Amino acid sequence: MKATETLRHEHDIILLVLDAAENEATRQGACDRQRVSQMVDFFRGFVDKCHHAKEEGYLFPTLVERGLPLEEGPIAVMLDEHEEGRGHVRAIAAALEQAEEDNEDAIAEHLAAFVDLLRAHIGKENNVLFPLADQLLGESDQQFLTAEFERVERKEIGEGVHERYHELAHELAGARAH
Fold it and tell me: Is the pTM of this model over 0.70?
């Protein structure tokens, strides 16, 4: 499997949780704070620590080595959007810590903004950056990236954590909003 295929598969898992997050952002009344807290855990642990770590630590630097600019173009856009997304997740987490009546709007607003941002981001990666990467990267690059992605999951994320986040994504996607 190509490294970009691994990342696309992770996008599919992320999209499941984004659908659930959208449901929380648009529901009538108070959000399910425990569910949103689980989403924050998923966004921090899977999206950022696992998925974005692979892109930022390995895919993007390899693409820069193969001639893509870092300061402008698709990689710069992706990095900016990763940071913007982290800001939304921090804001959601902060709002969860405040009294309920003071922050329902902030939770919904940042959830909705994060969903919109990440869906568009995934579209750019799947339809622009990854096809470009597949053109630029040779077989040895793909093998290197695949090995590094596996190492990230084993050593940096921890054995079984990736799978736990897959299960959480399916739980969040399958749970019905009240």
Answer: yes
The whole-angstrom separation of Cα 135 and Cα 24 is 39
Q: Say if residues 140 and 54 touch (Cβ distance below 8 Å).
A: no
Give the dihedral sign, CA 86/92/98/102: positive
- Residue-wise pLDDT for 10-52, tens only, equals 999 999 999 999 999 988 777 888 999 999 999 999 999 999 9
In the chain, the amino acid numbered 6 is T
Residue bearing tokens 């959830």:
111
What single string gives the DSSP state of each residue in 31-74?
A: --HHHHHHHHHHIIIIIIIIIIHHIIIIIHHHHHHTT--SSSSH
Contacts of 173 (CB under 8 A, 6+ apart): 16, 17, 19, 20
Distance CA 15, CA 117 (A): 12
Contact between 74 and 132 (Cβ < 8 Å)? yes
Q: How far is CA 82 from CA 47, 50, 122, in A?
A: 10, 13, 11
What separation in angstroms does the CA of 2 have from each of 63, 85, 144, 162?
Answer: 14, 26, 10, 18
The pLDDT tens digits for 125-144 are 999 999 999 999 999 999 99
